[in-house]
Design a protein that fits this description.
about 325 residues, mainly alpha, 13 helices, globular
Length: about 325
C-alpha cells in the first residue's frame, strides 16, 4: 500500500515535471524568495495525486467525500497555478469544495457541524498554502502530520497520501526541481483537514478537535502570525511579503535544510502529543501540548520581534505565489 503510493508518487512527480516543462507551467523567480533564482516546474500536486490514486487502484478504500474533495481541491489549485484567481473568488471556491466533501461524507449532520468542518478545511488548506515558501518544507511537515493522523485515527488512507508525498519530496528536496504549487498545497491541506478529524462522518469530540489542531499546529502557527504581522503592516493576509517563518530563518543565516529541521522538530512533538491525546484522552497530554504551544508561540513572537525585518524585494503583485 505505502510502497505503491511511494513509487506512484515518484513516477507521477517525474511525469508531472515533464508535463510542466513541456507546457511552460513553471514558477518564475520571485523577489520575495531570494533563493528562487531560476524557473522551476509546477504541478507537484499532480504527482502526489497520481501516487495516491495508484494506491487506491490497488484496493485501498477511500470515502466518497474524501475523493470528491481531493479531486476538487487539486483541480482548483491547478487552475490557480495556470491562471491565478482573485482572492475572494478563490476563497469562495475553497468553501464550496470543502462543503461538498463534508456534505457527501455526512449528509445528516447538523448545519452547525457542516459549517464548522467546512471552515476548518478551508483554514487548513490556506495555512498549508501559506507555509509553502521553502523547498521540501511543506512535504516534510505534511508527511509527519499525515502519518500521525493515520496512527491516531486508524485510517490507512493517511499513510497512502503520506507515501505519495514522500515520492514527491524526492524531487522537491533542496534544491527543488519541482514545486508543490497550489494544486499540491490544496490537496495536502484538504487531506490533513479531513483526515485529522478521524473522518468527516463521525461526531468529533473535543479531544478529536484538540488533536486535529495539534496535528496541523505548525501550519496554523504560520497562518496566525502572518495574519497578525501583515495586518499590522496594512497588508491583506494573502498579499505576499517576506514575513514567513522559513524566510526569516533563512534571512538569519540558516540553510534550507536547517530551516526544515527547525520546523520538523516541533511538528513531530506536536503530532506525538496529538496521537497520545487522540488515543487516550489524557489530560497530561493536553497539559504538555498546551505548554509546548505556549513555548512555540513565544519563540515565534521573539523571531518576529527581531529587527530589521528582512525585505527581499517588492510586495507581492497579482499572480505572484504567496
Amino acid at each position: 500500500m505505502i510502497a505503491v503510493a511511494l513509487i506512484g508518487g515518484l513516477v507521477g512527480t517525474w511525469l508531472a515535471r515533464r508535463i510542466a516543462w513541456r507546457f511552460a507551467i513553471v514558477a518564475r523567480p520571485n523577489p520575495i524568495v531570494p533563493q528562487h533564482r531560476r524557473p522551476v516546474a509546477y504541478l507537484g500536486g499532480l504527482g502526489i495525486a497520481i501516487g495516491a490514486g495508484a494506491a487506491l487502484a490497488t484496493g485501498v478504500s477511500a470515502p466518497a467525500g474524501f475523493v470528491i474533495g481531493a479531486l476538487g481541491f487539486t483541480a482548483l489549485g491547478t487552475l490557480d497555478d495556470l491562471r491565478p484567481l482573485q482572492p475572494r473568488g478563490k476563497l469562495l471556491a475553497q468553501l464550496a469544495v470543502a462543503l461538498a466533501a463534508v456534505v457527501i461524507a455526512a449528509p445528516e449532520a447538523s448545519a452547525i457541524d457542516l459549517a464548522t468542518r467546512t471552515l476548518w478545511i478551508a483554514v487548513v488548506v490556506n495555512a498549508v498554502n501559506l507555509t509553502d515558501v521553502c523547498d521540501g518544507l511543506v512535504g516534510s511537515l505534511a508527511i509527519i502530520a499525515l502519518g500521525a493522523s493515520g496512527l491516531a485515527t486508524g485510517q490507512p488512507l493517511a499513510f497512502v497520501v503520506a507515501g505519495a508525498t514522500a515520492g514527491f519530496l524526492w524531487f522537491n528536496r533542496p534544491p527543488a526541481t519541482i514545486f508543490l504549487g497550489d494544486a499540491g498545497s490544496h490537496l495536502l491541506g484538504f487531506a490533513l483537514g479531513y483526515l485529522w478529524l478521524g473522518a468527516a462522518d463521525r461526531v468529533a469530540t473535543w479531544q478529536h478537535w484538540a488533536a486535529a489542531v495539534l496535528g496541523v499546529g505548525s501550519f496554523l502557527l504560520e497562518l496566525g502570525f502572518l495574519v497578525i504581522v501583515r495586518h499590522r503592516r496594512g497588508l491583506a493576509f494573502w498579499r505576499g511579503s517576506p514575513d514567513h517563518l522559513a524566510l526569516r530563518l533563512q534571512a538569519a543565516g540558516l540553510s534550507k535544510q536547517r530551516t526544515i529541521a527547525v520546523a520538523v522538530i516541533p511538528t513531530a512533538l506536536l503530532n506525538a502529543l496529538a496521537i497520545w491525546l487522540a488515543r487516550s484522552n489524557s489530560l497530561v497530554a493536553l497539559a504538555l501540548a498546551a505548554g509546548l504551544v505556549v513555548v512555540l508561540v513565544l519563540g515565534v513572537a521573539r523571531l518576529y520581534a527581531l529587527e530589521p525585518v528582512p525585505r527581499f524585494g517588492r510586495p507581492r503583485q497579482a499572480g505572484d505565489p504567496l
